[in-house]
Design goal:
4 helices; mainly alpha; two-stranded antiparallel ribbon
């Protein structure tokens, strides 16, 4: 079932989200200061490409730099991304068939708000990363 949902997601919106995050990550990696944010954008992009069957967990070794980076990310880009995922999720939840895709958009909100210090793991092993 995960594969079918991922393929439909990929065709409807996953590919475009992936390209957007990939473009943003490439722009962020131009400067040395933006490289951690670019890597986070690439990670979110891969998660947005194939979201069903995966979840995010917080990394225990993330410290103050991740916290400060997340604050900067939230102010500069995170709230725009989260708002886009909220609107898209609500629109997708209008139909019964779109509900799983709306939920997938809602799953992307926490990682789009605070991407640093998070890891994407399969849903059957959410605590394996700890």
């Amino acid at each position: 079932m995960k594969t079918i949902l991922n393929v439909i997601w990929l065709v409807l919106s996953g590919f475009w989200l992936f390209l957007g995050y990939l473009f943003a990550g490439a722009l962020l990696c131009i400067t040395i200061i933006g490289i951690p944010f670019g890597i986070a954008a690439f990670r979110i992009g891969v998660y947005a490409l194939w979201p069903f069957g995966y979840t995010t967990v917080e990394r225990r070794d993330a410290g103050a730099p991740s916290f400060i980076g997340n604050i900067l990310w939230l102010i500069l880009a995170g709230w725009w991304l989260a708002l886009a995922h909220i609107v898209t999720g609500i629109v997708m939840c209008v139909t019964i068939i779109g509900i799983p895709f709306g939920i997938a958009n809602f799953k992307l909100i926490p990682v789009s708000l605070f991407p640093l210090g998070r890891e994407i793991v399969p849903t059957d092993q959410p605590f394996a990363a700890r």
